[in-house]
Every structure is written in structure tokens, then in C-alpha cells.
Amino acid sequence: MTKRNDIVTKRRTNSPNQFAAKDLVLPKVARAKKPCPQEPAQGCEKTISAIGALKDIKEQNTIEATSLRYGLLADYARDIIYCSTPDGAILEANHTAVEAYGFSRQELLTMHTNDLRAFESVAGFEDPYRTGWADGFIVEAVHRRKDGTTFPVEISARGVEINNTKILVSVVRDITDRRRTEAVRERPRLAPTHPRDDEAMELHFEKLFVLNEVQAIQDAFAAATGVASFIVYINGTPITRPSNFCRLCEIIRKTEKGAADCKFSNAEISRTITDGAVVQKCSSCGLWEGGTNIDVGNRHVATWLIGQVLNDQDDQERILRYARTIGANETEFHEALAQVTHMPREQFEKACQALHLIAQQLSNLAYQNIQQAREITRRMHAEKAMQDSEERLRLLTDATYEGIAITEKGCFIDVNDQFLSMVGYQREELLGKPIISIITPRWQSVVTDSVQSNRTEPYEHVAVRKDGKEIWIESRARIYHANGRNIRIAAVRDITERKNTEEALRQTQKMESLGVLAGGIAHDFNNLLQAIIGQTYLALAKLPEANSVRENIERAQVAATRAADLTRQLLAYSGHGKFLVKMMELNKFIHENLHLLEIAIPKNVELHVEPIESELYFSADVAQLQQVLFNLIINAAEAMDGKAGRITIRTYLQNIHEEDLLSWKRGNVAPTPGTFVVLDVDDTGHGIDQTTIEKIFDPFFTTKFTGRGLGLAAVLGIIRGHNGAIQVESRPNAGTRFRIAFPQTSLPQTTPVEVFPKTNDRLEGTILFIDDEACVREAFTDAFDHSTITVLTAENGNEGITLFKEHQEAISLILLDFSMPGMDGETTFRKLRKIDPHVKIIISSGYAEEDITSKFKGLEITGFIQKPYPWNKLYQLLTEYLNILAL
To answer: In degrees rounded to 5, what are phi and psi of residue 584?
Structure first.
């Protein structure tokens, strides 16, 4: 007790709006609008203190500010809240406790928790409060008010320890309404409609009342008035056990006639009563009896009988004669009659009136029970219908393939499973959160505008999953107005895959457009190079070996040859170019180019090679592969930004399975599953962010100085042309890794050297040369100007066909350009073969032989030569076919 007083004394030295236990400060602020009725002056002081505390909150430390906010919340709670010591001394109580118990705050703070409990509920509560301190407990009890009335409560308590002081915090809830509802629900359910005339017999007394409660009332009434009492059905059959029954009636009822007379009398009085109470002599021995009806909804369900009394005017001799009538023992009957209660009629009538009042209350109670049962049943049906409706709605929303999000005031109030799966959250994580919390910053304004404007047409935006992954969303919403609330229901689709497909299609179209451009440039450039190479060849053929000009012409030929390689790269860029493919071994290729690679990178960048021990064979164009390797190595070196670093080249074999294709897919192109030779270029540079990775293969995209942009786009085109694939892995400040895969081929087979037949020194014949470029035609004509070969030239297909018709007998061979305006080479070829199915036609083009020969399936072409071609190669080809003709 000393400890408690010490705690209370220290608490009272603090502000009236707070309570403390030693160094513990538990905030408490009185309601500003509704001060304690017992303490109006202190209520005003507490209001002023609360306002002052809120104004000065910025000057308080974090703990005090938080305590004040919690104090306000506790004081304005709907439930009773009080704090006590573990032995039950009350330390503080909120305003709801003051109102509920009727004690002032000062009175409560001097009380024990047991003082709040009704006497009958005190026992058994010591143990929970003492032993349940740490883990907490929930119990039900009966509490009392200051005026002595009681009410049922549910107590939820838990102990806390702050600054070595133990505090028990109890939250007390008035459960009067709940108890009433439970009591009604425990009664048998009645029909939810008012009983009709034909339903009167269905209202059984036992279903309207709790019999043991009615029996207790009946017994108490009988004991208080000294009369016998019991309740019967309309036909006289007893319902309750008789109370204070006299011995005389028991003797009468033991005889057959007496029992029949009693039952008849009970039924008769039931039929006689119309309103109020009835007093009359019974039909058996003539004792006085009374009764009143118990009606429910104007329906007579039972009769409450009292009686078995005598008054001074009764003829006892007549009553004794009744014993002989029913065959009862007269001596026993006489002794029993002497024990019957004597009561003046006026007093008995007053007892009957009191009985009527009690019966009316029971009738009203029964009718209220019916009404309550009807209302409870209606509510249960309504609740069940609501639950069924909600369940159907949940099934519908969860069964759809679309995500459903229900929002109000820009926040989630419900979502379906599909939406949760889409964004990766749990339902409880989303409910109450703003919509824009899962939207990327760039799209938040779009979504906010759509919500505020109640937009109903579909729109697209980007959302962020819980794992950080961004997804494209298509939303379509409808606004519903219900009970003054604006509810927004949105149907949401994940369109990420569609967006990716569209982006891949755009990328493919872009690549195809640039491929067409590159092909056109390569065609025109090849024609110019063909003229240059041809004329320089003729110049060298005419110059003596000792002529100093030969060196300059030879350099021009080298430059033209390098330019021809450039045209092949332009064709490779589109991904359709076919190269001079041959079997090669990857480790050997890297070793042969290692010295050039080391020269191409800064000296502070280390180049390290980690080849696999086994040989890695695949088919590729050496020049194109060299371009890919140099491009990747130079890019890796530039990623060091002039700092020291390391580039690692690795080679190995890898099996790419179906499930791996997505990681190798670039745009809408993926490799075919199988075994691949992999070239891995790894650097320690500054790395690449994800946004840049998505653009590095775009044509003309560059992060370098002006003038670049086809490097990685060309690399991608070359790799695709070789049926390969490429991967990129990088993070800012974590380096970059390019992984290139080519289909593995079997071990190389020895290819026999092609031996051309020896040619005559002088060749004869007529060649028809069809090409749209004048410079190429001139170079071809000049080459055979002093030979025995006759050259006819045509600038297009129509002119070529005309010349062939005119000189068909003389023409030994036709050299036909594939790409020409107007009538192209394929059409010209078919028309020439239609004129002469056996005419020899050699096709020339800047495209690879595989691309051209595929156009002439079923039509044998005599030969193919790729532009720009060396003159000696052309001469060998012509010599071969002219020799065959000359034989």
C-alpha cells in the first residue's frame, strides 16, 4: 500500500493532463468539447492544457509529443481504459471511464479494480490479474456503477514495464447489447411474420418462454400470496409444476372423477376469461380459484391459474359431501380441508389482479421475443444474402483474367487475386495505399489526372511491381455512386508482352528499312568500285614492270579492295548478308589477331585471354568476325575512361535449350536450340545502365563523340547473318560482359583444290554484257578491247533481250547484272532462257551467291561472280566457259 501511495503522490505533482508512475509519463488529456460533468472547472483547465500542449508541441522533445498524441487518442476512445498496478490500484482512467461508472476522476484514482466489480463477480479475478500480467488476458465480468446498477463487460488487459515500473493497461468494453443479442439468439427461432389465426396453435408456450424462469416467477408469486399457482394450456393440460399446491387438491386429483373435474374446471376458466382476471368457484369441490390468460399477439396460448382458498361464507359441509361423490377417504379429506388457506374474497381478487399484471408483462415479453426473433432472422437473412452476394462478386472478380482494383479517394479499398498476382503484393499490403504508390514517377501525373477527371476510356501507363520490375498496364475504369461515396472500379491488364512485341516489331522494321538503305548503297558503291578495280587492272596490265606509276595504282587497288569490304559490312548490317563463310577455329582466330588487338587498346588496359583447351570449330566470315571482335574490344577499352583496367576474352562451348532462348532473344529474333561456340568479352569499365542497354543496338545510337553509331548495330547484323545470338550483362560501375554465340560445326573436312582447265592463249567468242552502270560497261569493254573476244553491251534488260535476238547465233556467253532498274536481272534471265533454253548466263551481284541462287530455283545458272570482282578472277571464269565452248 505504501508503494501505491508513493506512486499516486508523484503522479499528482505532474500536469492534470498527464499521469505518471515514478519516471513514467502516460499522457492524458480531457475532452475539449465534453468535460467531466463532476468537474467542469477542471475540464476547462484540461481543455486549455491540451490546446497549450498542442501549440507548444514543436518545442517539446519527440517522446513528449508522441505521449501527448497517444493521450488524446486514449481519452477520446469509445472503450473504458484505465491503468493500474499489478495488485489492482487504479493509477489513471480515461474520460469514458468517468462517464460509464459515474465516479469522478479523483474518486476513481483512489479505488481498487475490485471496487468496480459487482460483488458476485469479484471472486476468481485475483489470479488473472496477478498471473496474467506479462502475457495479458481477456475475461468477462460484471461491473457496477456509482448508483449501484450493474452491466456486463469484457476486459482485455496486458502488462507493460517502463523504467522498472509495472503497469497493467485494461481496456473495458460494455457488452450489454451483445449479451441481449446472445440471449435472444439462444431462444428458439419463431416465424418471422406475425402469427395469423390459423397459426395460433403453432405458438407453443415452451418456445416463447424459458420454463425454469417462468416457474421461478410462479413459485415466488405463490409463496408471497399463499395461494396455489400453475399454468395450463387452453385444454387444461398443465405446463408448469404446481406451486404451493394444497393437500386437498392432491387427494381430489388422485381419484378418477376428481381429476376429470379439475381438468374440466381448468379448461372452463380458460374459456371464460376474455379480458383481465376471473374469480370463480372450481367445478370440483367448490374452492375459490382465479385465472388470467397469457396472450401473444392477440392469441391465447396459456392460462395462469391460482386458487384453492376458502372464505368464511363457504359451505364446508357441501365440500365434505364432495368427498363421498368422488370416492375419497372422508377422514383424510376432512383433515386436508382444514389445511386450506382462508382468504377474504376481496384479498383474493387483488391477488388475481396482480396475477393479471404479471401475465400481461409475460405476454408483452413473449411478443417482444417474437419481434426480436423476426428482426434477428431478417438481419441474418440479409447478412447471409450480403455474404452470398459478396462471395459471388469475389468469385466473379477472381475468375476473370483481368485485374480488378476498387479505389476510393485515390486509395485501394479492394483488389482481386489477378491484380495481386500482377503487381506482386499481398492484399493487406495494398489496401489503404494510394494508387500512385505503385506507379512510376513519370506516369504518376497521368494516373492522377485520370482518377480526378473520372476518365472512363482505356489508357496505358507503367506500374512498378513489389520486386521493382516495371510493367505496362492498360486501365479502364467506371465510377459508381453509392450512399454518397464515389467508388472507382478499374479493370487492369498487363500489356507488357504486347508492348515488348510492338517494340520488337518497330526495331525489326527499323532494321529492315536501314537494311534496304544499306543494300542500295552497297549496290551503287559496288558498281563504282567495279569500274575502279577494272580500270586499275587494265592500267597495270599496260604499264611496264619498272614504271613508277604502278605503285600508286596498286595502292588504289588496295583501297578499292578495302572499300569492297566496307560494302559487305553494309550488307551485313541488315542481317541478310551472306559472307565468304569458311570453317574456322575460334581460339586460333583470337591468337592470330591478338597482336593487332593489343595495339588497338591503350597501354594501361590489360588484355587477358582465357581460351578453352579444346578446339572450337564454327563457320564464319573471317573479315566480319574480325570486325565484331575489334568493335567489342575497342568499346571495352573506351569504357575505362582513360583509367587502368582489364579486358578478358573467354571461349567455351554452351548448350542453349528452349528455356534459355528468352535470355538470348534480341528483338523478335532468337537462336535455334543447340550447341554453340561462345566468345565472351568482359571488361572492368564504368558499366551500362538498363535504359542504355535497351538502345545500344539501335542504328546511330551512341554515347561517344559525333560520327559514330553503326558499331554495335553492325555487330548485331553480322551475328544474325551467322545464325548467332548476343547477350549483354552490365550494371553501372560494375563492368560489362558481351556474350556472343555461334552454332558449332563438325570438324573441318579437307576440301580438294579446284583446278581450272588450261586455257588457249587466244580466246574467241562473243559476250553480251548487261549492266545498268555505264562506268562498269566501259571498264568491261576496255578490258577486251585488244582481244579476240567481241563484247556487246546493254544498259538494261530490254536492250539486252533485243541484242540477244539480233545476235543469238554469235553470242557465246551472257554476263548479267542482277540488280537493275526497270526489268531486273531475274526477269531478264527468264526471258532470255525462254528465247534459248540452253544459253549460258553468268549472274553478277554485290549480294552473296546464296541469296542470288535462291532466286533461280529450278533454273540452272551457268555461274556466279560477286561484285566487285578482281579482273583476273573474271578472266578465269570467262576462260573456263569460253574454253568449254571452243572444245
So the answer is: -145, 160
Q: Rounded to the nearest 10 degrees, how much is the dihedral formed by the CA atoms of 765, 771, 773, 774?
A: 30
Question: In this structure, which amino acid lies at residue 63?
Answer: I
Q: Write out pLDDT tens, residues 660-709.
A: 887 787 766 778 888 999 999 999 988 888 777 777 777 656 665 333 44
Residue 343: HSE in the Cβ half-sphere, 13 Å Cα cutoff = 22
Residue whose entry in the numeric block shows the C-alpha cell 387452453: 234
Cα gap 793→171, rounded to integer Å: 108
C-alpha cell at 742: 555461334
What one-character-per-residue DSSP string does 410-462 give?
A: TEEEEE-HHHHHHHT--HHHHTT-BGGGGB-HHHHHHHHHHHHTT--S-EEEE
If DSSP states are collapsed to H, E and C, what string results for 342-370? ECCHHHHHHHHHHHHHHHHHHHHHHHHHH
Q: Which of 113-122, 173-182, 197-206, 318-327 has the lowest mean pLDDT?
A: 197-206
Residue 647 burial by CB count (10 A; 0-12/13-18/19+): exposed, middle or buried? buried
706 dihedral zone (left: phi>0; alpha: psi -120 to 50; beta): beta
Distance CA 246, CA 248 (A): 5
Q: What's the rounded Cα separation, in Å, for the pair 648 and 633?
A: 9
Q: Coil, strand or helix: which one is 733?
A: coil
Position 399 confidence tier, pLDDT thresholds 50, 70, 90: low
Residue whose C-alpha cell reads 592470330 in the numeric block: 592
How far apart are the C-alpha atoms of 479 and 505, rounded to whole Å? 36
The C-alpha atoms of residue 292 and residue 300 are separated, in whole angstroms, by 10
Spatial CB neighbours of 755, under 8 Å, sequence gap ≥ 6? none
pLDDT of 35 > 90? The answer is: no
**Closest by Cα among 331, 234, 337 to 291:** 234
User: Cα dihedral angle (713, 719, 720, 726), rounded to 10 degrees?
Assistant: -80
Q: Give me the mean pLDDT over the 501-525 stretch.
A: 74
- What's this model's pTM, rounded to 2 decimal places? 0.39
User: Contact 384/404 with Cβ under 8 angstroms?
Assistant: no
Q: Over the stretch 87-100, which tens digit does the pLDDT of each residue have? A: 889 988 988 899 99
- What is the distance between the alpha carbons of residues 738 and 636, in angstroms, rounded to a whole number? 10
Whole-number Å distance between alpha carbons of 263 and 285: 13
Half-sphere exposure of 85 (CA within 13 A, CB side): 19
Q: Is 159 helix (H, G, I), strand (E, B) or coil?
A: strand
* pLDDT at residue number 74: 60
C-alpha count within 13 angstroms, C-beta hemisphere, residue 142: 11
pLDDT of 546 higher than 90: no
Res 61: pLDDT: 46
Q: Which long-range contacts (CB under 8 A, 24 or more apart) does 545-553 make?
A: none
Q: What is the pLDDT of residues 568-605, one digit of tens each?
A: 666 655 554 555 677 889 999 898 888 878 888 888 89
**Tens-place pLDDT, residues 379-398:** 888 888 888 777 776 676 66
Q: How far apart are CA 430 and CA 404, in angstroms?
A: 13
Rounded (10°) angle between helices 62-75 and 40-55: 140
Name the DSSP letter for residue 746.
P
Phi, psi of 182 (to 5 degrees): -65, -40
Nearest Cα residue to 110 out of 126, 95, 127, 93: 93
What would the grid cell of residue 433 be? 495505399
Confidence of residue 714 (pLDDT cuts 50, 70, 90): confident
DSSP assignments along 42-99, one per residue:
HHHHHHHHHHHHHHTGGGS-HHHHHHHHHHHHHHT-SSEEEEE-TT-BEEEE-HHHHH
| CB 399, CB 377: distance < 8 Å | no
C-alpha cell read off for 105? 476522476
